[in-house]
Design a protein that fits this description.
Elements (H helix, E strand, L loop, with lengths): L3 E6 L10 H11 L3 E6 L9 E4 L8 H7 L5 E2 L8 H4 L14 E5 L6 H10 L1 H10 L17 E2 L7 H4 L4 E5 L3 E3 L2 E10 L2 E9 L9 E6 L5 H10 L3 E9 L2 E8 L9 H12 L7
Parallel strand pairs: 1-2, 1-3, 3-4
Antiparallel strand pairs: 5-6, 5-7, 8-9, 9-10, 9-12, 10-11, 12-13
Length: 280
């Protein structure tokens, strides 16, 4: 009997090329598995396995209720990936920390997905969001991830930031290797994984600023512990190792396809696609 996998996405979202799971699902179909994409928590579909792929920071009660209908699930426990949930390096005003800090959105991916969906639901919300984005950055509810400001100390952070619930202040803890800043990326699906480190001259590392990328065979046990505590079965962790300890920057349950060569990306896709076998 052919195994059936249902992938639950947000009713206002999309399941398209660019998502890592989209490419994985294509591999599954080629291998003979049946895959159905469910837009929103609608009627329950009979399936052997359900995967939560809601590209939002927090998952609604309706989505969680849908997942509970299935005996086998992936990421059903990953309800909240906000910075206030996953970060252990948050800085609060006058808490005594005096080192460099970075300002981020509390919501994942700069809060952009929530802003887009809110704009789709209401013209008024879309207009309000447009007007808010004309204000100085400290007043905004979303920021481009390349625009996260870095300050030498908390005293330099604009006062409005401390009162804006959409923003958080974290210790800026970069990993360095000679002249480079380093960003480590751990991708995993069940018992399959790929771990790498990217090097850049930029403090905030994006794919287009990477000058070199290398595989890293060893995943820190502390990072595996974080994965267990956060309930992840599938996803991507961005992290660093600073002064011998793991610093988790971001935890993502709906990762995008890595922005390097197609051959390298598909090699990783095929590797992680095998991880579903542990759940069927």
């Amino acid at each position: 009997m052919v195994s059936h996998i249902v992938i639950l996405i947000h009713e206002g979202g999309a399941f398209k090329p660019g998502y890592f799971l989209y490419e994985i699902a294509e591999v599954w179909r080629q291998q003979g598995l049946r895959v159905t994409v469910q837009h929103g928590a609608g009627p329950v579909i009979e399936a052997d396995l359900a995967i939560l792929h809601v590209d939002m920071t927090s998952v609604s009660a309706a989505h969680l209720a849908f997942m509970r209908h299935y005996p086998k699930t992936i990421n059903a426990a990953v309800v909240d990936i906000s910075k206030r949930r996953i970060s252990t390096n948050l800085v609060r005003r006058r808490d005594g920390y005096g080192g460099p800090v970075i300002v981020k959105t509390n919501l994942n991916h700069g809060g952009l997905m929530e802003a887009r969906l809110a704009a789709k639901r209401s013209r008024i919300r879309k207009r309000l969001a447009t007007l808010r984005n004309l204000l100085p950055w400290g007043w905004r509810s979303s920021l481009g991830m390349s625009d996260y400001p870095i300050f030498d100390s908390p005293n330099d952070v604009p006062r409005i930031v401390w009162h804006n619930p959409a923003l958080v202040v974290e210790r800026f803890l970069p990993e360095r290797s000679g002249e480079f800043y380093c960003l480590r990326t751990w991708m995993f699906f069940g018992d399959r994984e790929a771990n790498s480190v990217s090097y850049s001259h930029e403090r905030i590392i994006k794919s287009h600023t990477v000058v070199r990328r290398e595989p890293v065979p060893q995943v820190p046990e502390e990072l595996r512990r974080m994965r267990r505590e956060l309930g992840f079965d599938f996803g991507k962790f961005d992290y660093a190792i600073v002064d011998g300890r793991v610093v988790l920057y971001d935890a993502n349950r709906t990762p995008s396809l890595p922005q390097f060569s197609r051959d390298q990306a598909m090699e990783r896709v095929r590797l992680l696609a095998e991880g579903v076998r542990a759940f069927l």
